[in-house]
Amino acid sequence: MYRERNSTADRALDILGLFAPGRLNISGSQVAEELSVAKSTAYRYLQSLTAAHYLEEDPAGGYRLGLKVLELSRLARASYGLSQVALPVMRELSRATDETALLTRRSGARAVCLEKEEPFEHRVRLSYERGSALPLNAGASALVVLAWEDADVVSELLTESRLQQYTNATITSESALVERLAEIRSVGYVVGRGELDADAIGVAAPIRDDRERVVAGISVVAVRSRIPEARIPEVVRQVRDAADRISELVALTAQ
User: Fold this and answer.
1) Considering only CA atoms, which of 214, 211, 220 is closest in space to residue 253?
2) What HEC string does 57-110 produce?
3) Cα atoms in the 13 Å half-sphere on the side-chain side of 146
4) pLDDT per position as a tens digit, 222-240
5) Taken in order 235, 211, 129, 93, is the CA torsion positive or negative?
6) 3-state class (DSSP) for residue 4
7) Could you tell me the pTM of the whole model?
8) Sign of CA dihedral 196, 197, 203, 204
9) Is residue 12 within a helix (H) or strand (E), and if so which, with residue range?
10) Rounded-to-integer distance, Cα 52 and Cα 206, Å
11) Phi-psi region of 11 (alpha: psi -120 to 50; beta: other; left: phi over 0)
């Protein structure tokens, strides 16, 4: 029920709040009833909102949301950066898997850890920290941001950077790394086993923008004993679902 308030702005916000997925059109009579005001008063509010382009008259009758609302929606979405968009999904992923979730992005010849979400329990000490720069040739979190780069870019990066070995599983051959990247693109995700930290396992998937370009990666990293081979398909699904959700949100912010 409408609560009496004095501000005309409050009344305007209440009218805009009447719209919902199942209610895309409102009439003057509905506004008068919902706000407990006279019909003449309701129409005065509606006319003010229409003049300011927050509403517009629906050819089928009544009023619908106007172009000003669409413009504000676009500006609101544009105000959210990648981290802001990704963090809520990362928290859900970390809780669902009970493991650490990472958001990574390429910066030159390194992969930068933008965000890290850890479960309340099972926090582990690994090489992945917020703000740290990771080698592009080691670990799922890094490989996922390199796999979809143009071949010329990959070649240039590998020419500029020495492929350093961190564990016995680290790829240090350029040809082997190119082959690994092709395999990653083919399956659509990465599973890394002990390539940067010998005791770690990582599962990563790409995040895409509105033009389907890979702009970042999301991953789950854990001690290898916590994700046995039988559990990997489930974690892959969870990570890919999270990547798809973030990609949808990233695309929305660009509209």
Assistant:
1) 211
2) ECCCCCEEECHHHHHHHHHHHHCCCHHHHHHHHHHHHHHHHCCEEEEEEEECCE
3) 29
4) 999 999 999 999 999 999 9
5) negative
6) coil
7) 0.70
8) negative
9) helix 8-16
10) 42
11) alpha
Strand segments, DSSP code E, in the chain are 55-57, 63-65, 100-107, 110-117, 133-135, 190-193, 200-208, 214-223
Q: Coil, helix or strand for 121?
A: coil
Residue % of the chain over a pLDDT of 90: 64
Let me know: does 29 contact 39? Beta carbons within 8 Å: yes
What average pLDDT is seen over the chain? 88
CB 147 within 8 A of CB 190: yes
φ/ψ bin of 118: left (φ > 0), alpha (ψ from -120 to 50), beta (otherwise): beta
Structure confidence at residue 190 (pLDDT): 97
| Cβ 104 vs Cβ 141: under 8 Å | yes
Name residue, tokens 């912010």.
253
* Res. 91: pLDDT tops 80: yes
Q: What is the pLDDT of residues 149-198, one digit of tens each?
A: 999 999 888 887 788 899 999 999 999 999 999 999 999 999 999 998 89
- Give kind and range of the element (H or E) at residue 244: helix 232-253
Q: What is the DSSP letter of 169?
A: T
DSSP-based helix, strand, coil % in the chain, nearest 5:
45, 20, 35
Sign of CA dihedral 210, 212, 214, 220: positive
The per-residue pLDDT for 93 is 97
